[in-house]
Amino acid sequence: MKQAIESIKTIKQSITDMFNLVESQAIKAETALLNCDRDLANEIIYLERKVDAFELIIDRECEKFLALQTPVAVDMRLIISMLKINGNLERIGDFAAGIAQFTLHDQNKGIDPTIAEKLQIRKMFDEAINMLRLCKSALFEENSSMAAKVFAKDDLLDDINREAVPVLADLINNHSANAEQMLYLYSVIRKLERMGDHCNNIAEEIIFYIDAKVMKHRNMEQLKDEVEE
After folding, report:
1. What is the domain range of residue 68?
2. Better pLDDT: 188 or 69
């Protein structure tokens, strides 16, 4: 019993470290992109190796726990959720590294602040980073109502992503010399939207762990109502 408790503490600490590392990547990706900071972009790409290594470590810790402790009920849900959360965090790290790659290959002198504002890029970063923080707090406070708040933030990122298409079309028409950068910027926006999707996945796993509710493929309003009951 004592060994199982210690193993769970180790896994939770590793997941905390993973959350912190991925959050750091996302914050640095915003700074690198908006300031055209190539040194910082290279640092993000280097950190991606560390994220990948953490993913493997956490997978092994969870697999060892399953093999040696044969958990049931809440402990089983915890380990299943940790494995899935781990994978989603690794993907968020991938997207941050992808944004850093854009910064390295951007041949312009960074993004025009007016264009960044029109595309709401800073707002997307802020929402994605807040979603990560909310997920981390919800997991370690074991608060499913807090996790459910992530869903509305994901809806906001989806809305900004949809709104970006006509804005980008107009920008390309009026700034054809920068058309290539505009297309890359849409790729950045899609990566930020996908970060939100993976935070959404993490929130679903947290609710599964805490409340034993499977949240996938169900009406979002129903999900929020059920969690808040």
Report:
1. 2-228
2. 188
